[in-house]
């Protein structure tokens, strides 16, 4: 459990668990720290994928199914015990969706709220260009340039050759996993009934958010916050996210 899920601020009496899913190339350091910012009614955890942090020596997952199965097998008992919500950013949004879908289809479990950030809806055609990137043949310098444009990685970290090399490898492997993920929403099939909230940075590239509407019979809402792809690392935006997520969870009538 501790290998996969990082929860530095345990709240055994919390009413709800918020499980966070980091971005491509990312670890648990930022989102796990949200735990100290939420009220005692919400316990925050962050998922740690293989190949990073304390799982550095483990091989990277080869596809989305492997990740979904691992997360589900580790978290299932906890998720059956009390209500839960998911927050994912970018690559993490697709993992959170895939895990939520698996939980609903196989176990009849559903988050009380799905919070997605900086991501197209999973059935959107806007995802196709990402899936067609020849990631194995892409030069390190091109990936590094892309990471720098996205932001979110302190420049001093990229000056360290070992850190830079591992970040490039992790990012490459995460994109490879994303390319194995596919979801086609059957006509008139609405997989969820929970509310979905979509966040995006105002200066980030536009994402196909509207299509998230088609994935739930619950409410879908959209928020644009100032900043680029990593708008959520700005303290003022972080405060907004935490207040908004708290309000949504507390209004869920737990």
Automatic annotation (TrEMBL):
GO function term, MF aspect, one: fatty acyl-[ACP] hydrolase activity
Signal peptide stretch: none
Catalytic activity, EC: 3.1.2.14
Domain of life according to the entry: Eukaryota
Domain Thioesterase: 17-245
UniProt xrefs under InterPro entries: AB_hydrolase_fold, TEII, Thioesterase
UniProt keyword annotations, A-Z: Fatty acid biosynthesis, Fatty acid metabolism, Hydrolase, Lipid biosynthesis, Lipid metabolism
Coiled coil spans: none
Family, per entry: Belongs to the thioesterase family.
Protein name: S-acyl fatty acid synthase thioesterase, medium chain
Organism: Tauraco erythrolophus
Lineage: Eukaryota, Metazoa, Chordata, Craniata, Vertebrata
